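Dissemination and training. As part of the outreach component of the grant, students in the summer workshop were shown how a complex can be specified as a set of sequence lines and then modelled as a single object. The example used during the hands-on session is reproduced here so that future cohorts can follow it. Participants entered these lines:
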Amino acid sequence: MTVTDQENIILMEDVNKFFDSFQALKNICLSVKKSEKVVVCGPSGSGKSTLIRCINRLEKHNSGKIVVNGHELTSDVKDIDVVRSEVGMVFQNFNLFPHMTIIKNLMLAPRLVRKSSKSEAYDTAMRYLERVKIPEQADKYPSQLSGGQQQRVAIARALCMNPLVMLFDEPTSALDPEMISEVLDVMTDLARDGITMIIVTHEMGFASLVADKVVFMDNGEIVESNPPEEFFSNPKNERTKLFLSQILSHYE
Amino acid sequence: MIFDFALIADSIPKMLTGFWMTFELWFLSAVLGMALAIILLLMRISGRWYLFSPAMIYIYIFRGTPILVQIFIIYHGMPQLEFVRESMFWPILREPFGCAILALTLNTGAYVSEILRGGVLGVDRGLKEAGAALGLSATHRFIYITTPIAIRLALPAYSNDIISLMKSTALASTITLLDMMGIARTIVAETYAPYEIFISLMIIYLIMTWITQRTFGWLEKRMSRHVRSEA
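and obtained this result:
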């Protein structure tokens, strides 16, 4: 596996991450190809969020190598901003800018980073709002929307930058149960369009439906990584089996 | 004791002749103090020790000593120094008005920078991360995300400081300025009626405070009109 491998849009090699003396990531190796959908799951505190936050350098890894679309992540600030503008991220708590209307939330980054014209940014924003099925909310403020609607706006906001990869950090964990499906529907729709996605989630039904690869993490390590059919029907590792039995019994 | 209402009615218009002096002291030091506060804030959050340590020492000194002492040091103390008398600032520092503005500005700047810092620290980390994840530079994040949210968070504490600054302007009367307080003291010296005069003065200050509170209340409401869950 080499860095110049064109197929891999994301490559992590022996990545370690410490929070003081606590090791959050241990020798992580992960490669994601163009159009691939990777679901990352595992118990809380296993390092899943830290892993995807390292990909756009919201967390700095301590050792190892992370390459995103040919850019190796180092402390070069200019380079980081370029990588970030190519990698979309959706957060658990939506993180919409509360002082801006929905349409302004969507137009901000294209205007400032891509230097798009106002009308161009507006058209893109409306196109993606239609795609997440809430164009009528364009002039409202985030606090006037439901959680499910806010998360769909957050997805649209990331898409406005036309990213190569979308990262989802537990996108449905802060939602009321009745709103989870509207967000998962949008994500399933995106997956069908062939965008590269890395998704941290506990939604195993969604994982089995869209994932090309399911990665199970525990204790900062990748314990098992397999296609969903294999992962769910024939888990190899004891920890994976335990996790699956716990999370699946929850649905019965 | 007989309360002389006629004297009150008589002295309020006289004290109001000092209103512009009070207002100028208040307004100029508020504006200059804000500029100073922003500089101090940027030094404070720069993360560079040679910038934040001087700012911290400055803030400690000006918040930790009485403003009256600061006014006296500037007015009575600085002219003793030859380099002050020879500097380009002497035309300003020679006048009690310049000294009062300087003292009030230096003092309020220290307080306001801490208020602004509270606002900046109160901005949800997740929002800054969302900005970063979209590829916004640190400067853009500060201007478009941190600043507007921090201003709204800092507004209630800032309105408090503006009112406090208005009251501090009365101390300028101790260095011969004829603001409303200075005029009141002159009238008291002539009439020997401290109650009537000072109570009238209180009423004027209370009206100014009331207007200030209402203005900031309106501003706060306006700036958070789209925030339902917070505040």
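The beta strands of chain A are 8-19, 22-33, 37-41, 63-68, 71-72, 87-90, 165-169, 196-200, 213-218, 221-226. Students were then asked to discuss how this feature might be tested experimentally.
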